[in-house]
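Team,

Forwarding the record for the chain on the shared tracking sheet. I've put the sequence and predicted structure together so nobody has to dig through attachments.
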Amino acid sequence: MEPLVIYAPGSGTTERVARAVGKGFGTAGTCVVASIDHVTPTAVWDADLVVIGGPAHVHGMTHALRRFLRQTVESAWQGLPVVAFDIRVRGEAGTAGSAAVRVARKLRTGGAVVDVPPESFFVAGMTGPLEDGSWSEPRNGAASWRRWWCRTAGRPEEERGPISPGLRPRTGGDHLAPARLDN
């Protein structure tokens, strides 16, 4: 399986950012983009890379994202390369907490490989859109994350197809259908 982009639903901007991230990975093959409501722990286990995020809520993670992480067994995250992102309103220093930082910390504690700093995408208001209106930022983030992933896997970036860092054994299964990244 290629990258799995998981998002916690919010105002709709989070899904659009997740799909933009998926497009950034999509140039190299199939990328699954799915809401946490449709992701099983087995799908996480089968992924080669997980990009996970959601909107910031009360200076941290939403209840849904917190519940998803709690219900996903730690062994699913062991050795798995993970990138965390969030969607939040820009605020004065220290007033707008980052859900991505908390997700990355929790997953690193659970054994995930979190070598890339968490990323925040800023929205203009509580329901979006992105602050500058540009969707290239999430796509560019994905391209950067793919380069990191390829280095982790020890493969040239220009190679196409599934990339598995070989950090843990894989199991088979059809736990998610690849999302179409046309929009």
